[in-house]
Design goal:
This protein is α/β, with parallel strands linked by helices. It is about 25% helix and about 15% strand. Helix 4 links the parallel strand 5 and strand 6.
Length: about 220
């Protein structure tokens, strides 16, 4: 399949976002990650939970000049789901129907899909393409653990760090961003982008002295 655009999809997206007064939501000013996770409950033994969710949170906590939110979208009202997704430009989650929210992300966005070792589906690569978003996949190579019909995905921490570094590097260039760096950014590079100035406090990022950008050779 080589479809890169769908007028039906875009019309549906517009209709839904306008219905909830979210169509004109401003893009996030700094890379904003939404980690979508699933939780087992007594009522529902869901699958594709993250076996080591805390490792993923730890990696995201290493970033500077980024915002991170985490949610079990399936447990939220639809409007709240849309609000979270719409103000994010990086959506991270295991393979599952919740990743269809890629359609409602900020206009420039990255979908990071984590595949369990046993699945070869390409649903959300195609969905990302038709939604005009960047798709970054990663695959767990370790076997899942099971609790009845529910599986838990082990995610390699180092591989996840590399993928998130790439996702954040892309997101820093969205809109008029000018920070050429990844998850953990050199403060001297961040200081070159004046658009970061209002966000140092909120993101608990220390401001550095900007690199000298004057041509040094004579």
């Amino acid at each position: 399949m080589r479809c890169h655009h769908s007028s039906l999809w875009m019309s549906f997206k517009q209709h839904v976002l306008q219905s909830f007064n979210l169509h004109d939501t401003k893009p996030p000013p700094v890379p904003t990650v939404l980690l979508s996770f699933r939780r087992r409950t007594d009522a529902k033994n869901v699958g594709r939970v993250f076996q080591n969710e805390n490792d993923l949170r730890d990696v995201l906590g290493e970033g500077n000049m980024i915002r991170v939110e985490a949610a079990d979208l399936g447990g939220l009202p639809f409007r709240k789901q849309l609000e979270l997704v719409r103000r994010s430009n990086i959506l991270v989650g295991a393979h599952g129907a919740g990743l269809m929210h890629v359609l409602f992300m900020s206009e420039e966005g990255v979908l990071v899909e984590i595949h369990p070792s046993y699945r070869l589906d390409r649903h959300f690569r195609l969905a990302s393409r038709m939604a005009g978003k960047i798709y970054l996949p990663m695959r767990s190579t370790d076997p899942v653990t099971c609790r009845g019909s529910s599986d838990a995905i082990p995610v390699n921490k180092e591989e996840f760090r590399r993928v998130m570094d790439a996702a954040v590097r892309l997101a820093r260039s969205f809109d008029d961003g000018a920070s050429e760096c990844g998850l953990r950014c050199d403060p001297r590079i961040l200081a070159l982008d004046k658009g970061n100035d209002p966000w140092y406090k909120e993101t608990a990022t220390k401001k550095g002295v900007a690199l000298n950008t004057k041509f040094p050779c004579h």
